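Page header: ASSEMBLY MODEL / two components / 231 residues total.
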Amino acid sequence: EAQVTQNPRYLITVTGKKLTVTCSQNMNHEYMSWYRQDPGLGLRQIYYSMNVEVTDKGDVPEGYKVSRKEKRNFPLILESPSPNQTSLYFCASRTGGRGYTFGSGTRLTVV
Amino acid sequence: AQKVTQAQTEISVVEKEDVTLDCVYETRDTTYYLFWYKQPPSGELVFLIRRNSFDEQNEISGRYSWNFQKSTSSFNFTITASQVVDSAVYFCALSEGLMYSGGGADGLTFGKGTHLIIQP
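Prediction written out in full:
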């Protein structure tokens, strides 16, 4: 089944403790991206990647890092999480025809 | 830069009523894609439809229909004979064809969402 897999689904952590949210797709898509969703703000793009070793900032990149060492994986790294990064996170991959596939989401709470 | 506006923050209707969710977009590109997603209380994003800017035909899928009007930059979504299971947050989104992407981000621009409540 074609899918984007995010892990974990839920995560509670403490301020300053580094964490990684993993994202993997099995569709051989070149494009992948990360979004965060906050009440009243909709979804906003954090980072995106057009291909292996090519990443670029989205609209809200501050406090996040990404890497794209393999086509299938696009992890989101929070080196020093803060409470304002408490949010619902989605990973997505995309076909050339703008067909997006989203992961199931990761609900992150930073206390 | 591109922008998507969903002016209705929350709509509440009684089951079996028809309801229309509005979406207005802004883009400088002549090639772009418009989307609707449903987010039920469980939180996942459910894809509903994708239209490209060259296809202005309206679409109907069961109780769902979409009205795309380039002249008013709108892509409205109507649910006919609403049901309680339609209760969710609905997002409209835009993806540009990158003619004018310049230094901007490449991806989906979402509206803030409309929370639809269907009362039994």
